[in-house]
Design a protein that fits this description.
Elements (H helix, E strand, L loop, with lengths): L11 H8 L3 H8 L7 H14 L5 H17 L3 E6 L6 H17 L3 E6 L6 H11 L3 E4 L10 H6 L2 E4 L10 E4 L1 H15 L4 E7 L4 H15 L11 E4 L5 H12 L3 E4 L3 H8 L9 E7 L9 E4 L2 H17 L11 E4 L2 E3 L18
Helix pairs in contact: 1-2, 1-3, 2-3, 5-12, 8-9
Length: 356
C-alpha cells in the first residue's frame, strides 16, 4: 500500500493570505502586538490554529539577525520633525546637524522635516510616504500648527526631549532634576555659599516642572537659612529682565548664579557684571560641545540622546510598533559636570586642630 502524501508545512505567508492581511500584520497579530486591532489579532490566531500553523523558532531568530545586519549596512530613512516657526526652531536646526552625523555613523539617513511647511497633518503624512520615511525622531515642540496624533498612530516615532507639546509616543529626555541637583552639589563642594538661580518660564513644560522641583528641594536644604536665596523666575521673552535682575542682585547678593545656557551669562555681563570676578556662573544646560571649558555646568550630550533614540526607533520599526503603542514610556538620561572659566574654584576654610 502506498504511503500517504505528506502535506507541505503551513507558512506565515499562507496564514496571512488566508486571513486577508499583510505579512507584517499577521506577524504582529500572532505576537499579540497592541498596535494591531484586537479583532484582527483574534482572526489571525483562529486562521493559524485552523491551518495548523507552527512558528519556526530557528527561522525567526535567523530573520531577526538578518534584519539587524541589514540595518547596520543599509540606510533607513528617519525623519527629524520640528516646527520651524516656533521659539525652539534654531535649537532644533542645530540639533539636526549634530544628529545627522550621529545617524550616519549608525547607518541611517536623517531627513530634516519642518512641519510648518505643511498646512495640515494629511499633507505631512503624504510627504513622509513620498520620502520613504520608516520612523521619526521628534524635536522639542513648544507649540504645533496641528496635532501629531495621526502621525504617531501611523509611524514608529520617538520624541527627543519635550516641551509644552507632548507627542503621543515614547520620550527620551535629559534628567532635568538630576542636572540641577548635581550643579548645586558641585557649587557647594567648591565652597560657594549663596547660590542664586535664574529660571526662564516655560509654562506647562515637563522640563520646567522637573527644574522647579529640584530648585525648591535644594533651597529647602540650605543651611543656614539666610543662604536660601529666592528663585528669580522670569519671562524668557520679557524686556524687563535687566531691571528685575539688578533688583534681585542688590537685594540678595548671590556669589554664584545658576541659569539656562551660555547666553544668560552674556546677558549678565551686558548689564555690567564681571564673570567670574564679581560673580560666578554655572549652567544646568551645557549642550554645546564647543562651550566645554569656557562655561561651567552640567553637560548633556546630544550624541548620546540621539543614539538612544535611534536604538529605540530601530526596535520599533523591526517589531512594527507605531509611536502611540509605546506612548507611556519615558527614559531619562544623566549628563556630567564640566568645569569652566565662568566658575573659579573657591577655597573652603579648613580648621586645623590645635597642637597637643
Amino acid at each position: 500500500m502506498a504511503a500517504a502524501k505528506k502535506s507541505p508545512n503551513v507558512t506565515l505567508r499562507d496564514v496571512a493570505k488566508k486571513a486577508g492581511v499583510g505579512l507584517a500584520t499577521a506577524s504582529r497579530a500572532l505576537r499579540d502586538d497592541p498596535a494591531t486591532k484586537a479583532a484582527t489579532r483574534e482572526k489571525v490566531k483562529q486562521v493559524a490554529k485552523k491551518m495548523g500553523y507552527r512558528p519556526d523558532t530557528g527561522m525567526t531568530h535567523l530573520i531577526e539577525r538578518r534584519w539587524q545586519g541589514k540595518r547596520q549596512q543599509q540606510d533607513m530613512n528617519v525623519g527629524y520633525l520640528y516646527n520651524g516657526k516656533c521659539e525652539s526652531a534654531e535649537v532644533c536646526r542645530k540639533e539636526y546637524q549634530s544628529f545627522k552625523k550621529t545617524a550616519h555613523h549608525m547607518g541611517y539617513s536623517l531627513l530634516e522635516i519642518d512641519m510648518s511647511d505643511f498646512p495640515n497633518c494629511g499633507k505631512l503624512l503624504q510627504r513622509l510616504r513620498v520620502l520613504g520615511v520608516e520612523g521619526l525622531l521628534i524635536g522639542v515642540l513648544p507649540e504645533v500648527p496641528y496635532d501629531l496624533d495621526a502621525v504617531c498612530d501611523k509611524y514608529p516615532a520617538v520624541s527627543i526631549n519635550i516641551s509644552r507639546y507632548r507627542p503621543k509616543c515614547p520620550i527620551i529626555m535629559h534628567d532635568e532634576f538630576t542636572a540641577i541637583t548635581e550643579v548645586w552639589k558641585n557649587l557647594h563642594d567648591m565652597g560657594y555659599k549663596r547660590i542664586g538661580v535664574l529660571l526662564p518660564k516655560y509654562p506647562d513644560s515637563v522640563s520646567t516642572d522637573l527644574r522647579l522641583g529640584a530648585i525648591l528641594t535644594r533651597r529647602s536644604l540650605e543651611r543656614p537659612k539666610k543662604n536660601s536665596i529666592p528663585l528669580l523666575y522670569y519671562d524668557s521673552i520679557a524686556s524687563e529682565f535687566p531691571k528685575i535682575f539688578e533688583s534681585w542682585m542688590e537685594k540678595h547678593h548671590p556669589d554664584v548664579v545658576i541659569s539656562y545656557g551660555g547666553q544668560t551669562s552674556k546677558n549678565i555681563e551686558a548689564l555690567g557684571y564681571s564673570i567670574p570676578e564679581q560673580i560666578g556662573y554655572a549652567t544646568y544646560n551645557l549642550w554645546q560641545q564647543e562651550s566645554i571649558g569656557t562655561i561651567a555646568g552640567y553637560f548633556r550630550d546630544a550624541t548620546t540622546i540621539c543614539n538612544k533614540g535611534l536604538q529605540l526607533l530601530n526596535m520599533m520599526v523591526r517589531t512594527s510598533r507605531v509611536g502611540s503603542s509605546n506612548a507611556g514610556m519615558m527614559e531619562m538620561l544623566a549628563g556630567e559636570w564640566k568645569d569652566g572659566e565662568t566658575l573659579p574654584r573657591k577655597h573652603k576654610t579648613v580648621l586645623h586642630p590645635p597642637p597637643c
